Predict the 3D structure of the following.
Amino acid sequence: KAGVTQTPRYLIKTRGQQVTLSCSPISGHRSVSWYQQTPGQGLQFLFEYFSETQRNKGNFPGRFSGRQFSNSRSEMNVSTLELGDSALYLCASSLASGEETQYFGPGTRLLVL
Amino acid sequence: AQKVTQAQTEISVVEKEDVTLDCVYETRDTTYYLFWYKQPPSGELVFLIRRNSFDEQNEISGRYSWNFQKSTSSFNFTITASQVVDSAVYFCALSDPKAAGNKLTFGGGTRVLVKP
């Protein structure tokens, strides 16, 4: 079974721009979660989507948003990029929502200049 | 609030030595799950093990073993006879049962370097 895939793998943007990252979960998985990883803050939960509905949201500004499609694929969007948004963005999928084991993708490394 | 602490930031060992990674967690919940993930240089987090708070039986899976002690809120992980391929950052994580859906709180990670 194919794992979680994320596109693009690497991205360079400038301050003020917006970016959209994509995540395809493992086949049959209906929950997708997003995490941000930075050297300073470590791994932090962004949000989770299940059945096209946001189930939970971490402590991030409204510039960070996401959505999930009927095929469980998910996108996250960051608007008005700031230098501090440079990070590895990891997507994880699980069968359902609620303390399920999450399986992670390879991540998208975003650099904001 | 939930918190996971991995006090060891980096461990360096020679191949075939055993490595034990410490993890201490804080939670007010009585039911929760604990996880260990491995992050090799490629960046992907690889799931290793999961334990629920009601199961304190310690197990061994291949070269991996874990010691879960609810009384001390610790969930330590051991790699036996380490190999160079074990070099990675290891993360301990705690589920949040009060949060709707899936949400993990991660520790800061322990970098393991296995030298040949």
Remarks:
- Chain A has a mean pLDDT of 94.
- The longest strand of chain A covers residues 42-50.
